[in-house]
Amino acid sequence: MVQVPDQTFQTEPPVIDVVVPNTGTVVINPYGLPVMIDGQETTEQIAGSTMLLENRSSVAVDVSVSAVGTPLGGVVFAAQPPAEDAPEKELFLYAEFQATEALGMTVPWTGAFLDASNQLMVTPFGPFKDHLMRLEAAGLPYSYGAARLFGSVSAYPAQPWEAGDGFHVNLAFTFTPVVPETPVFDAPGGTDVDSTLALPAGPNVMPDWIIPSSPVAEPDPIVTPDTNITPDPVVTPETAVPPETIPETVPDESAAPVPNTP
Description:
Blueprint: E1 2-3, E2 18-19, E3 26-28, E4 35-37, E5 40-42, E6 46-48, E7 51-55, E8 60-72, E9 75-77, E10 89-100, E11 119-121, E12 128-135, E13 144-153, E14 166-178, E15 183-186, E16 192-193, E17 211-215
Parallel strand pairs: 9-10
Antiparallel strand pairs: 1-16, 2-7, 3-6, 4-5, 7-13, 8-12, 8-14, 10-11, 10-13, 15-17
């Protein structure tokens, strides 16, 4: 009877190195006025800057995120986009994540909240979601990722938007290495081999009757929380058009209040 030694391969856990931004910028723009973000003009009610991530690890990583929102002033978080004339200063907010082929490329944002696999709603309870995006190993296409906040607010609440109304958001990232499966080599049916199967004379020659069996279990995931991202709140103007005097046409931009952009 010939005994085949156990040839399970042991590997060192990969080192995770992912760069994330420390802060981001968001403008609360309840009246849809033209504002500048990342050098581009937009009229979105929640105008957020694009925040970039870079995977410098030797392996691909799977990205999971939790998002905790903290309201400021009279703001309250809503579970769905609010009506324009909602009585409170309601805020619907979500984050979207996209892997990008290279730096400087335009990110194809979805443009609406669909509860997609790469979207995460922001609430005070800090929801957590796995597999929001995958970043390939350093130097490969799609080793970069982008994150951005989107949403909407009630434009004409009972109390107009004023200084001090805003929010903070903490995005906490968890990165799990994506390790390729490594086969274990053994004889069919276990390590007991029929004596008629002769081992080769050369110590480095693998017998042709030894075939791959089940893959080696992956090492335990290495969870590396990175620096939290806290977008700075941007205060909207103190004066606003009350509900009963909403003009039917777009207000004159020269007279309309312009949000401060940090």
